[in-house]
Specification:
alpha/beta
Length: 347
């Protein structure tokens, strides 16, 4: 009974912190976007050169890659023009084809909130206009780079906010640009906002529902990179994004998983993640995430602190990081360490 009582107290504290940080009313419950994008039914009903098209919901990325390898240029262009939204999100399809498909898909929405994604020089690797919108943008060339990193963000990120310029070096795109600038030059970085993130700090941020859906999408996305010959990625996972990475780790071929500002990874130890990847963790001295109890009770909370010695992750210096989003600020020890990991030279 005494142990049960302590568990109830811990759960109450966890709920109080989540509620007190932003208030339940400040966070809207989100409906996770799942499955292939609109247009999948028309794609399934189509064919090219007498061949059935791979099912965007179930075909493994390697099967998709093999399918496109067997098409001539005219066949690829036909599918691109007829089904841009499907081709743009089809993991395993050639990356240049996806960039062009997503440019067309963005323009086809006619929505001002997305129009900047179709700007010159942008490499949009995934785009889904449903809900708040999802997007993945590439900085560099994953197929020719020696190394690839993927930024997995936390709450309040979507297709219209992921590249907000309010504060440099924050948000998925800002983090990606900062990381690429800090590396040796042969590392490509993807800003992956490919799942429905929580809004604010409320129940969605305290449970794993959105992270579970995000983990499936992240695993498939990384399999798509592998299918086109990109190097095994390093996952950089911020805040709630580290919950996504914790659930996805065993299903990806990542070489390293780096978490920062993490509320937990839904595992008791790094070994419990079930991955052969090296696991790294950082938390700055003024990061408010330290006030969130590291518990998981009745589905609320995300478990052990990845920066604790007992968790077993490799520690990243972060003593000069300010707040919850300052890990990629120029000159910080955390950014230098991140670049070393991204470049494959950290030990």
């Amino acid at each position: 009974m005494r142990r049960f009582g302590r568990t109830l107290v811990t759960a109450a504290v966890a709920l109080a912190v989540v509620a007190g940080t932003a208030g339940w009313a400040s966070a809207d419950s989100q409906r996770a976007v799942t499955g292939p994008p609109p247009g999948a039914d028309a794609w399934r009903a189509d064919s090219v050169s007498g061949r059935r098209l791979p099912d965007p919901a179930s075909a493994p990325p390697r099967e998709v890659a093999a399918f496109f390898a067997g098409l001539d240029e005219s066949g690829r262009r036909r599918l691109l023009l007829r089904h841009p939204l499907v081709v743009g999100n089809l993991d395993g399809a050639p990356l240049p084809l996806r960039y062009e498909a997503n440019r067309l898909a963005v323009l086809a929405t006619g929505e001002a909130r997305f129009e900047s994604l179709a700007g010159p020089g942008r490499r949009i690797l995934a785009f889904d206009p449903r809900g708040r919108g999802q997007v993945a943008e590439v900085f560099g060339d994953p197929e020719r780079a020696a190394h690839v990193s993927v930024i997995v963000p936390g709450s309040d990120n979507d297709a219209t906010t992921y590249d907000a310029r309010r504060t440099p070096h924050t948000g998925p795109a800002g983090m990606a640009r900062a990381l690429r600038s800090a590396t040796a030059g042969d590392t490509a970085v993807v800003a992956w906002t490919g799942y429905t993130t929580p809004v604010g700090v409320g129940l969605d941020a305290a449970d794993g529902r959105l992270a579970e859906v995000g983990a499936v999408r992240l695993a498939r996305f990384t399999a798509g990179l592998d299918a086109v010959g990109a190097p095994d990625p390093v996952l950089f996972c911020h805040s709630y994004g580290s919950v996504v990475c914790g659930l996805a780790a065993r299903h990806t071929d990542s070489s390293d998983v780096v978490v920062f500002g993490s509320p937990g990874m839904r595992a008791g130890t790094a070994a419990g993640l079930g991955t052969a990847a090296r696991v790294w963790a950082a938390r700055g001295p003024s990061d408010w995430i330290a006030d969130v109890p590291n518990v998981e009770v009745a589905g609320i909370g995300h478990g052990a602190d990845p920066t604790s010695p007992a968790f077993g992750a490799r520690r990243i210096p972060a003593g000069d990081v300010r707040g919850h989003t300052g890990y990629f600020a120029p000159g910080t020890r955390s950014l230098a360490a991140f670049a070393s990991i991204a470049d494959g030279v950290a030990r």
